[in-house]
From TrEMBL, chains A, B, C, D, E, F:
Pathway: Lipid metabolism; fatty acid beta-oxidation. It is found in: Peroxisome. This is Uncharacterized protein. The keyword Isomerase applies. Pfam families: ECH_1. It comes from Coemansia thaxteri.
Amino acid sequence: MANHYKFECLNVSVSPEGVAHVEISRPQALNAFNTKTWTEIGQCFTQFKTDGDVRSVVLSAAGRMFTAGLDLKEAMTGALGKPHDADADVARKGYYHRLFILDFQSAISAVESCDKPVVAVVQGGCLGIGIDLISACDVRIATEDAYFMVKEVDIGMAADVGTLQRLPKIVGNDSWVREVCYTARKIQPQEAHSVGLVSSVYATTADAMRAAFDMARTIAAKSPVAVVSTKHLLNYSRDHSVREGLEYTAIWNSLAHNSHDMAAAIMASLKKQPAQFPKL
Amino acid sequence: MANHYKFECLNVSVSPEGVAHVEISRPQALNAFNTKTWTEIGQCFTQFKTDGDVRSVVLSAAGRMFTAGLDLKEAMTGALGKPHDADADVARKGYYHRLFILDFQSAISAVESCDKPVVAVVQGGCLGIGIDLISACDVRIATEDAYFMVKEVDIGMAADVGTLQRLPKIVGNDSWVREVCYTARKIQPQEAHSVGLVSSVYATTADAMRAAFDMARTIAAKSPVAVVSTKHLLNYSRDHSVREGLEYTAIWNSLAHNSHDMAAAIMASLKKQPAQFPKL
Amino acid sequence: MANHYKFECLNVSVSPEGVAHVEISRPQALNAFNTKTWTEIGQCFTQFKTDGDVRSVVLSAAGRMFTAGLDLKEAMTGALGKPHDADADVARKGYYHRLFILDFQSAISAVESCDKPVVAVVQGGCLGIGIDLISACDVRIATEDAYFMVKEVDIGMAADVGTLQRLPKIVGNDSWVREVCYTARKIQPQEAHSVGLVSSVYATTADAMRAAFDMARTIAAKSPVAVVSTKHLLNYSRDHSVREGLEYTAIWNSLAHNSHDMAAAIMASLKKQPAQFPKL
Amino acid sequence: MANHYKFECLNVSVSPEGVAHVEISRPQALNAFNTKTWTEIGQCFTQFKTDGDVRSVVLSAAGRMFTAGLDLKEAMTGALGKPHDADADVARKGYYHRLFILDFQSAISAVESCDKPVVAVVQGGCLGIGIDLISACDVRIATEDAYFMVKEVDIGMAADVGTLQRLPKIVGNDSWVREVCYTARKIQPQEAHSVGLVSSVYATTADAMRAAFDMARTIAAKSPVAVVSTKHLLNYSRDHSVREGLEYTAIWNSLAHNSHDMAAAIMASLKKQPAQFPKL
Amino acid sequence: MANHYKFECLNVSVSPEGVAHVEISRPQALNAFNTKTWTEIGQCFTQFKTDGDVRSVVLSAAGRMFTAGLDLKEAMTGALGKPHDADADVARKGYYHRLFILDFQSAISAVESCDKPVVAVVQGGCLGIGIDLISACDVRIATEDAYFMVKEVDIGMAADVGTLQRLPKIVGNDSWVREVCYTARKIQPQEAHSVGLVSSVYATTADAMRAAFDMARTIAAKSPVAVVSTKHLLNYSRDHSVREGLEYTAIWNSLAHNSHDMAAAIMASLKKQPAQFPKL
Amino acid sequence: MANHYKFECLNVSVSPEGVAHVEISRPQALNAFNTKTWTEIGQCFTQFKTDGDVRSVVLSAAGRMFTAGLDLKEAMTGALGKPHDADADVARKGYYHRLFILDFQSAISAVESCDKPVVAVVQGGCLGIGIDLISACDVRIATEDAYFMVKEVDIGMAADVGTLQRLPKIVGNDSWVREVCYTARKIQPQEAHSVGLVSSVYATTADAMRAAFDMARTIAAKSPVAVVSTKHLLNYSRDHSVREGLEYTAIWNSLAHNSHDMAAAIMASLKKQPAQFPKL
């Protein structure tokens, strides 16, 4: 299988079982997010959406920490949005800056909208934009040396690429969410585990990676119609009333239930044998 | 009190205090859900809505497991929706199949929309549609031999009668929710307890049933206006913004506060005596 | 700094660092909420919104309990809404009573809409309206003698000033939320902690107050633009889809990113020095 | 074709082309709506939804006027909702009365949710509930002796089975809508035509009926998949943002485009020949 | 009846029948809107909401034009929001300016939220904020010398106190709405009539006033419960789906139907006699 | 000014005043929409969004008709979405087909989301996708030989790229909208004018083009901040409640009001002189 995923800041590979591995790889810069990095994340996960060979994804980062957050040196050059002139009319600057933020958000949201489940593995620090990113993943696991900081408030801004939208909806403890968003304090992995930010904590990165790939392979072996539908419907339902979620599900499944997978899976289930499912 | 609740797959009784007991009873089929079963659940809880004699409900299942999930044998006969012809135009099949799913959803949602609090007791396995059903209940308790599986992905489909809508809103750990929905893995009762899927775990079914009835009787002794209003408003507010929830509550209570119950309850509270409340 | 905050039922002070302290002070009545009390809470937090000297808030209560709940004696005089005549047309009574509830709700919601983070400290009992109030705060901490009761059902009504809207969204355990709302049972501080109703439990009120002020001072030292934006966007995002939350954030930050605070904070961060931020 | 539509207050027939005719028939009572009438309307249109033999509908009324509105004599007996006791607790009465209104609304909304286009023909007076009913239809035509009154305000109530929801969305003149809702004044057919309440005005009932059946037959000859989808999507889109409407349409058509009808219709269109479409 | 409505920029009187007349009265400044003017409009209509003596309202303006729009001289002094310093941090200025806009919007929206129908009479020019204001009224009538301009784009801004929200929802011609909003061109009264911006056009101001008061008196003679409910529900329904509008209406009317007005009105209707309704 | 707009199916030019002209140019195929055509429309209008040189747009089509609709020959080759295999699993085909429709919709919606006002000129026939396209424009004008057909139902499908979402919101006559969507009948230009589908009808194409460019030039001479804000806010407000529209407008204008344009425009207005506004 040729690798159609060539990036500068990401290492991407896809296993024969359909598990893609995305490794953020700017370890020399502590995986700080420059524009290149998030642009490539957007491109990579958008490509996953229509790549039937990809059935589930493991997202990790190279080096001693997951990410130091936004690349502050690039941010200071102000290459954000269009009018580079510091004296430019603020409404004009703001208009283009808004479009810039929307692009940034869209890249991170591609992780969510790719419809393939994504398991994130966090080792070392995961700061600022790192929280925005893992909040857009499906499952999060960490190593014992991991720590987390909703760092944006410390650079004078409100997080704007997903943390404030998604973190409160993935962790059922609003008192905790607000405290860590207002104070930017360090969160230890056990604390992250106890509030549900991560599903499990492993002693070493190797252990965590092994667990992540095990889970991803398990998912990749299921019917891709069932898996993709489940992720899509979970995301839709999070953002709608139960009633609207049910109605959207009904129309979605009136199509999906015509898949051969369902009969194959039921038959396999009745015979207590494994089933094979063609790619999406 | 005559029993107006005669069903094939359910045993239903109502106590003088106003506690209804609904027991799913197809133990020989491990309480697998055929069309009859969920149709009767819909009918039963719809009837509860206008039955003033019912103030709270305990829902349990007979035999060694809560439910094995969807009745796969019936499902394989394809009696889902209208055109029975396998060669039928897919748009026509889909149109009727969507109506079928909406009916199924509506039956399960009757548990939620009946406005009387429902306490579910889970013993043994609770698979697939079982999760959809208990997610529509108010309080869930389990026995030590209980286990849970969001099984749908293993029959090649996305859960479509409530799990994907309600489970993430009753459990504040999205990483966990997604993992169990994508992998269909077995969930032990203590794990279910720790994420909040169940409120408590009891050694035996007898203990769990006793606890459920205690809670249901406590609720049944309160003002039914207050209890029914509380359930109704919790459900409305889950699906709306805080502001819309408050405004709906204001108009609801501008009526409900005219009830005699409120004065009676305040008086009893000031006198530190129990109050009696007429049925709804 | 002159104190512009003179109230009958509240003691209010603002520290030089920008931490306001609001103390509910009707200890002789166990801080029961009469109309005066909630009216003043509304006025006080509304004033905070446009007071640049206030950057964060600690909310506590004087005496041996946080609050006994609604002032039942006042409630029994029926001074709720306009037509005092018991025989008045129920639609007319209801119209004005609805406006009364909306006013009450609005006062409590001022805690949320003031845009400055609020840390609540609960000692002793916190009943009924007390739960509505602390649910509108950002962070909740308690002492070991604290206990909580969603008491409204025991006075024959559904909670109508915020508990049913906010509690399920701050605690990720719906089975627990519904149980305590239907039964009005006593909740111990450790239980409140384990479900996430409170972030931490301290041995004494003094310890809890110290922790609250530490947190509030930490927040007050951050950029007020960043902090206020974070609270505002968390509230907006709770009530909207992720997509709508992101879009609102983009337009909000296209303005906020023009603040001097961001450059100052980034520079300080790069130099590893503390930054000073002017008041809002 | 046997007639499965036997009602007391309605005459219903279905033509071989698939045009159903529903005639409200209580001329001796000026077609005043008693409970029987609207209950049957709900039943009839619900049945149409799953009856493939029905492709479009003409709705008219027998006698000299379309309807005099609500049957006031029945209304005065107060048979609305459950507790018949005038002294019943107002919250209890209100609870059941709300369910009664929801049932009434649901019956009228069945005209909208049946998914088959409905052409209403109005002759003589169309008062009160008559406006609610025709607002739930797709196309409205009138005779020159027709007149309309949003009469509810004159019986001391706000219209509650659809007029206030639908009328402002079918007529693009809010100043006019509000005037006629507040004053209950008589609307002449030409005025109804000029604001778009009706699409056309005919000299005689016979002319209007002929025009209605012509339109209904034209619709019945189209692909029922296309027609039903169009009505369903128009209704969904009215109640959602353009973006949500488009997304729902995409999932709907990803199923519907698999229909044989589309290829048949395109082929017929390219060959400039008529196509035949099997029933839904 | 004492006049509780004393304002600087408004003349307000209330007739014995319950018709309030609000006259904007800064004719020397062509009724240009300074802060005082819109603040008083907010106060006046907020007071109407709880004043049972007011059942309907006529809104007009003194002098030769309805309003020249925003008072540009005041606007140029920049007294908008808090930090008066031109060099103030733009995020801080923006924060307070947003609160200023919200206050302005809230004043204009009071016309809508007062629940009493408002008939606007426009003579001479109605520019900028004038359109925002009349769009918040229920019924609009004009004189032959009236003209309208959505003027904001000509002062370099998008209309922000209601025109862009309400105008497209009161006029069913989006092509026209957008043209006049982008070009700020003059709209003649007949054109305003033909698109439905105004309900009728009268030769003289006296004629228009007479028509407005006739309509207002007609409305004031109806059951105030029915009228207020109708306005409230029309506004709610405009902003919600048909389904949500119906459900809100059901709970609203489950209260309102307990009013004595309904029985009185039905009885009067059956006896063909006028009914008298006590004030709200 | 170099022309950055090179397309195969479109001729695009931008005047020095900032008026872009987009001409659909496949006259030999009656401007039937193949994939290339709509893809380029999406690209062109997306580019307009960030091109400050473009302030308003005129959209027209070359040859004797605006468009014959979808290119049926291309459609019959089935190049819609991914799996080209007719035997492919219907759920898999549907998944990719849905993404295909979303892409198509997104291209048409670019006309709306480009934030620059678009005036469409229709001559000759405007069928099917042509209606979807002009419904996404701001202002529509036609020639006397124009005619319109919502043609989709005649090719066996529901319109899915915007007509069913936007047409009912731009034309305030639902009875008419539904009739033309169900019957696909021919609409004459005067009829289109009377329902508000087009703003005006001109004798010749030359006249219509002249009127369109006059309007576009008028718009291009206004502050681009004001114009872009107005279009953006009209679109946002169409899809939200009045309250949400107002709140979004407040945050938007708290930025936009910092523009130099506002002061320049007010000054020019007070001096009664024209103002010049720099490009966005």
